Amino acid sequence: MRSVLRLFYLGFSVLMVLVLASCSGGGGGGSAGGSSSGKKLRIGVSIPAADHGWTAGVVWWSKQATELYPDVEWTVVTAETSDKQIKDLEDMMVKGVDAIVVLATESAPITPIAEEIHKRKILLINVDRGFLKPVADIFIEGDNKAFGRKSAEYMVQRLGGKGKIVILEGIPSTVNTDRVEAAKAVFKANPGIEILDSQTGMWNREKAHDVMQTMLLKFNQIDAVWAQDDDMAEGAEQAIKEAGREKQIWMLGGAGKKEIVKRVKDGDSMFPADITYPPSMIAIGIHQAVSVLRDGKREEIMKFMPRHMVIDVDMILPDNADRYYFPDSVF
Questions:
Q1: For residues 215 and 103, what is the distance between their CA atoms, to the nearest angstrom?
Q2: CB 299 within 8 A of CB 291
Q3: Contact 275, 260 (CB under 8 A)
Q4: How wide is the angle at C-alpha 54 spanned by C-alphas 89 and 13, nearest 5°?
Q5: Is residue 63 pLDDT above 50, yes or no?
Q6: Residue 278: exposed, middle, or buried by beta-carbon count in 10 A (0-12, 13-18, 19+)?
Q7: Which of 123, 130, 211, 268 could form a cystine bridge with 174, CB 3.0-4.6 A?
Q8: Mean pLDDT of the chain
Q9: pLDDT at 304
Q10: CA atoms within 13 A on the CB side of 331
Q11: In total, how many domains does the chain have?
Q12: Cα distance between residue 4 and residue 8, in whole Å
């Protein structure tokens, strides 16, 4: 339990600064979840269904954050597809929510409904997967360009500047685009690195397993897999072991899944490193929604709120892995 609490406080360290700033700028009054007028706040949270470990973390953090504000009328829904998420968002608008926190299933199909939310002047907070137009009042994301750059630089360094690699891409979104483009720029700057193939694993273990199986049949030599996601890395690893090539290939996932961090910590040759990308960022978005609206002074408080928050990412290596290992965490 202690490690969960430590993770909780780490996840909200930046948030506390934001809350203090909003309080100093927005004036006093108001309960934790109600507005200064006594009107109960109604806030919607729309997130992808927990189809893999990272989104399971998002669901878990959403629950932790919303439970801190029992006076708010929460509508928290998960969606397996973009069509379902669009319907959920339409329902929230009909319900008359004051704010919506959105982690998009995919960037492109959710952008038009996000535009409509913006036009209706509902406070819109976008987390992680960005919209294709700047319609969010607040956008919170991990530094995905740094994610791609730092992880690719590590791979180049570990390969000694020479090797054959494959790339697993994720769901079409700003997150995937930023990561992959930044990584490929690093690999391009190191001509000794040959990218054999780049295919989408949709941030899904089973899909990544199938894609990796095909790559293994296609290429006799693969030195490393740039997987960008721990679940995809685990799926790829399964395919590699089934092919009996686990002593020839290592990989780099991402997001800091506890099982992978433990393997980094233990010096597992298949997973020599990982990179952080905390699902707790959804909780920051939820807290920001309450912070902006609770005093009934949205416009005034927004003057003090950063419109774009970028959360830094760190490489997890054996000598610092203990700092990022939370065995009691859901992810």
A1: 31
A2: no
A3: no
A4: 90
A5: yes
A6: buried
A7: 130
A8: 89
A9: 87
A10: 26
A11: 2
A12: 6
